[in-house]
Structures are given as structure tokens and as C-alpha cells.
Amino acid sequence: MGVRLMVVDDHRLLAEALASALKLRGHRVLAAAAPAAGAAELVISRAPEVCLLGTATPAEPGMFDPVVRIKRERPQVAVLVLGPVPSPRGIAAAFAAGASGYVRHDERIEGVERAIMKARAGEAAVGPQLLQGAFSELLNPAAPPDDEGQRLLQMLTPREVEVLVRVADGEDTRLIAAGMNIAPSTARTHVQRVLMKLGVGSRLEAAALAARTGLLDRAGPVPRSPRPEAGPES
């Protein structure tokens, strides 16, 4: 016996094609298309057994509000979300809203029909591949991109950061010492420690690395004092 269905999607051609295919398989399709904003009202007024509700952005906040309203006012209606390959968050949001399942837009008609029959029977309708992908992503989340500038910044003391900024500004040891009110020998020691921590062999390399990784932008400005006359480095 065919299922009394609704296909609700912003993309009219997709909705009508799916509705036609389901009609050919003996199902009664009540409507083929509607804007997302009016989806809940249409489903509530028609009260089908199963509704296929299309979405293009399953992880967007509020995307499944129509599902919440449908299940609140017509709890007997099984809602199947029809969308792209979702993230685990998208699948979780759909079920949290009360959906009975999730079907990919590119699913074969046989798969869509199986999901419809499961949903009408009160079963969860999610393809094994979607579940496998969701669990895989949840159990093995992608590592966040390496923020090299932040990592390098955390290796340096505030004093060494100031030294690096001054090196990048082209200051020699004498100017660094004068600007920081320290002895030239202390300034030279700070410079060597900075080079060692950054894993570079020269001041020029240190300045280039700091600029490339955005370390200088994160470091912020350093206090400036009048520069003494340039002379031989001590």
C-alpha cells in the first residue's frame, strides 16, 4: 500500500522530479514544492504520513525549526530531512528537532523509498554510510590547523618577544640594549636565545619567520625611546 507523502523543497525541479518518481512507485504525493518558510504550515494543514523536507544547509542554526513545529502540532507525521552530505552536527540537529531520518539529495529512489517505509513504521531512517561517516568524524575529529605564529609566540618570554620585534625593526645590539635599558651583553644573550628557540641561524631569518607567521602582528608594539647615535656594535 502506498504512503501518503509530501515533498517540500525550495528547489521546485528537484521536488517535482522526486514526487513524480514516488508516484510511479505507487505513493500518494500531496504536494511537490513549497518555500522553506511555509513548509510547516503546509505540512500541518495536509497532515501526510511522511514528509520529505529539503534543506541545503543542515548545520545552520534554526534550519530545523519547521520540523520542531510540525512534530509539536502533528506528532504523527514522520519527517525525513532531504539534504546534502551532512556533518555530525547536521544529523544530530535533525534528530534533536524530531526528524525520523536523513536522506541525501543524491540517494537512489530505492533508498529514498526504504527510508520512507522505515519512517512510517516509526524507525530511524539514516543510511549506514551517513552514520559511519558521522561516527568517524566524531571519534576522529580533524586536527585544528597549526597556528605557527601563536605557537612560536608561546615559546618566547615577553622580554624575548620585545627583542624579536626590535630585531625585525632592524635594531642592532647597541640599539636593543639602549631601548630596553639593559647591557649590550644582556641584549646579545637575549638575541641568541630568540634565534635558538625559533630554530634559525641569523637575525634576518628570525625577522623573516616572525613576519611570515604573523608573530609580529600578535606581539603588538614595543615601547620606544630615542635612539642613540649609531656606532660600532659592542
Automatic annotation (TrEMBL):
- InterPro entries assigned to the protein according to its UniProt record, in alphabetical order: CheY-like_superfamily (IPR011006), Sig_transdc_resp-reg_C-effctor (IPR016032), Sig_transdc_resp-reg_receiver (IPR001789), Tscrpt_reg_LuxR_C (IPR000792)
Q: Name one GO biological process term.
A: phosphorelay signal transduction system
Record-linked Pfam families: GerE, Response_reg
Alphabetized GO MF terms: DNA binding
- Annotated ranges, domain Response regulatory: 4-120
Name the Gene3D superfamilies on file.
3.40.50.2300
CDD domains cross-referenced by the UniProt entry: LuxR_C_like
Which keywords are on file for this protein? DNA-binding, Transcription, Transcription regulation
Residue span, HTH luxR-type domain: 149-214
Protein name in the entry: Response regulator transcription factor
Question: How far does the signal peptide extend, from start to end residue?
Answer: none
